[in-house]
Amino acid sequence: MDIGVIVTIAGDVQPEAENGAAHRRGLSPSGTTSQILGSPVAFWDVVGQSVLDRTLSHLRRSGAERLSVIAEDTARQSAYSGASSDPSDPATTFWSAWDSVVSQYLNEGIDLLLLVRLGGYVELDLADLARFHRQNSSLLTQVCDAQGALDLVLVDATRLREGTGSFRGRLSAMIPSRRRYHFNGYSNRLATAADFRRLVRDALLGRCGIRPLGVELRPGIWIGSGARVESSAQIEAPAYIGAGARVRSASTIAGASSIERQSEIDCGTIVDGSCIFPGTYVGMGLRVTNALVAESRLFHLERNVEVEMDERLLGSTGSSYRLVSQDLMKRAASLIPRNNRTSNPDVSTRGSQMASLMSSLMTSLWLGRHG
Amino acid sequence: MNSSSTIVIKLPESVSAEQVRAFMRKLKPTLKLDQPCVVVDLSQVQRIDIAGLDMLLQCMVQVANRDGSLKLAGVSPEAATVLELTRMDRVFNMFPTVSEAIATCVEVPQFEVVPGEAVQQPAAA
Question: Chains A and B: how many Cβ contacts under 8 Å?
């Protein structure tokens, strides 16, 4: 059976006509744009590979040979292998690209058209879905999990080919007679940052089909190619250190954390229960807990707040800010008066406070392990 | 000899190098007193950079030199995240509200919190 797949990256595209917005009107139940830290969730890496690439790989393994990717935000539009639109043309709109791909698929003789909107991550059993679709003589089958409908629809290509009007119009006409396919496999809607964190954790704990991209050096510890972990760094399983990433001395990676490719964790920093996105530099002596970090942006999962950090603390691995940060370390050390550096904490209020301050500062950002 | 004194300083949404000089200038008279109690209200802070953190550290050192104390109050989730990241949440005494922070000061003079005013100096020291 020939199945064509169109994967749509959720964005901000607006419906252009009353009957031309199948995704918005009936087939896109989540209604989220699925952005985390400024980018669509589909583009962020999950233990070495993006949600998009993992979805495409899964679909290919399930037997789908024709795969196209269209971003709703046309600035990000790209086409993968299989049928293609022209990704280099900035004037191409989402819907014209979508129509073009559908038309091409139909001309090539597909039997079924699978529409996937990312969004979420679903380990779909494509063969079983196709079987259900056929057995029930369905025109349009919507995949549902325990929480309800997902952004996954299988459409009968014959009916789509034979109808009149636009492809979206024909698709919309099928919605009232849709059948629901109840899916029991792994799914994660990735509607929130906490969902994303859960996906990474599930991958590291083997709760889903995602396998970290790299070598499992010790049980539960995966290392990507070219990653460097300095000898005094402590890595607690499960953990992922991506390709080309660097974990410097005296740092700790714990709580099912992922350090994605080309990231760097500087000396003495603790990363606990967090995801460090690709190309992120995490400065010296910091403590990152329950957070997603993409360069200078940090989303704290417990506080549900996103903070733009000083780039001398969190930034890009390509940035030169770290040199400035080291200068500040020395300056911070100079803040403590010399005659108080050896004060006895039991002697006086002033001495006690200075001793407490010294002690705390020694574990804080600027003094760290190398102060 | 001056008696102890409490000062409440409310930081703006964004705390960076530009605010540091004004902050330290406003604080200067209090730092001449013995046992000053400085309460820094962080409830409005959305963003604080290294200069802002440095300012809090400097303030803490100078207050400690006068046997006083520095307290952070009403710390916003954003500011709390920065303090946790830099491990400074262990350095400072933090209180849910300004009133609770003031209540822990040794001597509490009469003062009034005026909305929109960055610094409230107690009427008498």
Answer: 84
Contact A298 B84 (CB under 8 A): no
Instruction: Read off the pLDDT of residues A109-118 as tens digits, 9 standing for 90 and up.
Output: 999 999 999 8
- Who among A289, A303, A313 is closest to B86 (CB)? A313
Using CA coordinates, name the residue in chain A closest to B88. A364
> What pTM did the predictor assign?
0.80
pLDDT band at A148 (very low <50, low <70, confident <90, very high): very high
- Report the alpha-carbon angle A267-A271-A274, nearest 5: 150
Contacts with B84 from chain A: Cβ below 8 Å: 287, 289
Residue B75, token pair as written in the block = 């710390």
Best of A265, A284, A307, A324 to disrupt the B interface (most B CBs within 10 Å) is A307
Residues of chain A above pLDDT 90, percent = 59
pLDDT digits (tens, 9 = 90+) for A207-254: 999 999 999 999 999 999 999 999 999 999 999 999 999 999 999 999
User: What is the CB neighbour count within 10 angstroms for residue A23?
Assistant: 24
Direct distance between the N- and C-terminal alpha carbons of chain B, in angstroms, rounded to an integer:
11
User: Could you tell me if A312 lies within 8 Å of chain B, comparing CB atoms?
Assistant: yes
CB-based contacts of A51: which residues, under 8 Å, 6+ apart?
Answer: A41, A42, A43, A44, A118, A121, A190, A199
CB contact under 8 A, B85 and A286: yes
Give the 3-state secondary structure of residue B30: helix
For A6, A65, B112, the CA distances from A79, given in Å and listed in that order, are 10, 14, 63
Shortest CA gap A35–chain B (Å): 20
Report CA dihedral (A317, A319, A321, A323) to the nearest 10 degrees.
70
